[in-house]
Amino acid sequence: GDSVTQMEGPVTLSEEAFLTINCTYTATGYPSLFWYVQYPGEGLQLLLKATKADDKGSNKGFEATYRKETTSFHLEKGSVQVSDSAVYFCALNSGAGSYQLTFGKGTKLSVIP
Amino acid sequence: DTAVSQTPKYLVTQMGNDKSIKCEQNLGHDTMYWYKQDSKKFLKIMFSYNNKELIINETVPNRFSPKSPDKAHLNLHINSLELGDSAVYFCASSQATSPYNEQFFGPGTRLTVL
User: Fold this and answer.
1) B94 in contact with A at a CB cutoff of 8 Å?
2) Which of A7, A11, A21, A101 to mutate to test the interface with B (most CBs of B within 10 A)?
């Protein structure tokens, strides 16, 4: 079945540091890939997505590239801010069922001034 | 305007009780979902539903049942609550014509069973 593996947290970084959160997946066919972010006390919101190989999703300074050969979708940001502190979820949609998402376990990021 | 709303935001109840969580979306989407987030933040699909088909995750106990009075609403009813049901429950919706489409999530309902 479908699965997503992302690096264990928590991750603590100083402001302006470089961020990488690794994500790899297993799926049938060619899934769509997503990064969702959950700020404290809130629901999930889409951060970025990519729908085919070599696509790069980007938003708010975050980027991730769909790498079919390594089945990966790593999240990166060049310079994190305190406001980026949140839990980040990698997810895929392989079109199974009613297109439900399969999530990784989430990575908690804390950015300190 | 809130896209996906859930009530209540917090729900504290005793073991053995029956409770419902309501969800509404005003996005005109055709499919709604319920996800459970456990204490370690792990998210897992419970149900997906459109006006044609209910798909149930086979690991969900039959004490949980989704009820959809219309296309914009998908409520979650839980019978005989157990301690292990304590979690945050998220409702979501999408236009499920493509796996490319974003799912929009509600703010979550934190259920605590005592």
Assistant:
1) yes
2) A101
